[in-house]
Amino acid sequence: MAANKGPLHQFEISSIYDIKFKGLDLSFTNSSLSMVLAIIIASIIFHIGSRKNGELPNKLQVLVEMSYEFIANMVRDNVGKGGKIFFPFIFSLFLFILFGNVLGMVPYNFTYTSHIIVTFALAGFIFIAVTIIGLVKHGINFLKFFVPSGVPISLLPILIPIEIISYFVRPISLSLRLFANMMAGHTMLKVFASFIVLLGILGGWAPLLLVIILTGFEIMIAVLQAYVFTILCCLYLNDALNLHH
Q1: Parallel, antiparallel, or unpaired: how do β-strands 28-29 and 24-25 relate?
Q2: Which residues of 146-174 are buried (b: 16+ CB within 10 A; e: fewer)?
Q3: CA dihedral in degrees (38, 182, 72, 63; nearest 10)?
Q4: Other C-beta atoms lying within 10 Å of the C-beta of residue 224
Q5: Mind listing the pLDDT tens digit for each residue in 217-236?
Q6: Total-model pTM
Q7: Among residues 149, 105, 117, which one has the least CA distance to residue 29?
Q8: Which residues pair with 51 in a beta bridge?
Q9: How far apart are CA 206 and CA 195, in angstroms?
């Protein structure tokens, strides 16, 4: 990426292969390529890591098994037995976000989780799916979720609208959290990296050291945000299945 490009240039979507269909732009972009790469790399890692090559597992096998057990325990602890059927989706969601965040740290790779349209699409799908699951399982009783327990009847006209608004704000807050963290972190790294270029090797040692520290911190944030997004999905699913409030 050219040095004269601004810090926000890294978030621009560019077309790799133009596809037009009945007035729709279905072009294959750098964002699409990053998604495909994330899926392929994750599939290869977990395919290789799931094969048993001996009595003792290698490091990759241990990593794959630990990640599998980590998400399985998350679903079990936050959703309950009824969430077992949703484990494949939740595990895939975690890996899609995790690899998108981490691979976005590779120079010249596109971070698709830094775009609000991607994070909102994920959050919106989860919101709609969870709502449908709650309605299918509980029917009209699902509306009880918006009625706080142990609250005087006189306060319900005030609290019920608040509960409804907070429920419909879920996809917005869920998508903004991931988008804002990834975009802000990458922008900061780009800004400090430009200081290294401007000051040169000798004068830029301080920005270089700061970039190294921030890179490690950003990787930690990338993993943490994948975890936060996934566990919130589990909590929303728990609300739909068990009507916990």
Answers
A1: unpaired
A2: beeeeeeeeeeeeeeeeeeeebeebbeeb
A3: 60
A4: 12
A5: 888 999 999 999 999 999 99
A6: 0.86
A7: 117
A8: none
A9: 9
